[in-house]
Amino acid sequence: MKELFVKYKAVIKFILTFLLVYGFFSVLYYFYLEFSEGSKFYPDYLTHLVAKQTESMLNTFGYNTQVFPHPDELSMKVIVNGKYLARVIEGCNAASVIILFVSFIIAFSGKLKNTLLFILSGSVLIYAANLLRITLFTIAIYHYPEKQDILHDVAFPVAIYGFVFLLWIFWVNQFSNLKKKRE
């Protein structure tokens, strides 16, 4: 058994680090959501911000868009040209995707400065890609409402997770300690 631990030390370290970091940030995020109830930003600050920025992007692209708090659930309603098209919920704010991204980067860490810079820049890129994803999704269902299910359930999750996967590949190949061990 000891031989297995020695042989797979790097894998075990990666898995444990990933799970600990992911668990830590997930618990922090849970408390953020719990303490944000009743704040002036509905349903929470980050989701509210994503909804408002989506509204701005849609208006910039020429779509008359308004975003309002949903009266019956914790979400923001997205109204385009007077038509209720989508809702922005807590799961749309990219926080859980960023937590997943950060956990992987820390588990495959490199030099401290590179790790912190990549976490910051990657998180900003994921946030921006998510805003673009929600904006494009809303435009797509405005023009092709019959495609809503496949767009929401397949195309756009593949886009955001595919983007994160590419960032991970770039990180592992360029900056992580794994690269140093291969050289």
Descriptive notes:
By secondary structure, the protein is mostly helical. The protein has one domain. The protein has seven helices and three strands, in the order H-H-H-E-E-E-H-H-H-H. The chain has helices at 2-7, 9-36, 45-60, 95-107, 112-143, 148-174, 177-182; strands at 65-69, 75-80, 83-89. Strands 1-2-3 form a three-stranded antiparallel sheet, with helices on one face. A hairpin with a 5-residue loop joins strand 1 (65-69) and strand 2 (75-80). Helix 2 runs antiparallel to helix 4, helix 3 (45-60) crosses helix 5 (112-143) and helix 5 (112-143) runs antiparallel to helix 6 (148-174). The two termini are 29 Å apart. The mean pLDDT is 92.
For the secondary structure, the number of strands is 3
- Overall 3D shape: elongated
Helix content: 55-70%
For the termini, the CA-CA separation is 29 Å
**Relative strand content:** 5-15%
Give Rg in angstroms.
19 Å
The strand line-up of the biggest sheet is 1-2-3
Q: What is the arithmetic mean of pLDDT?
A: 92
Please count the helical segments.
Answer: 7
Element order: H for helix, E for strand: HHHEEEHHHH
Outline the low-pLDDT stretches: none
| Class from secondary-structure proportions | mainly alpha
Supply the number of structural domains: 1
User: How many strands, which pairing sense, and closed or not: the largest β-sheet?
Assistant: 3 strands, antiparallel
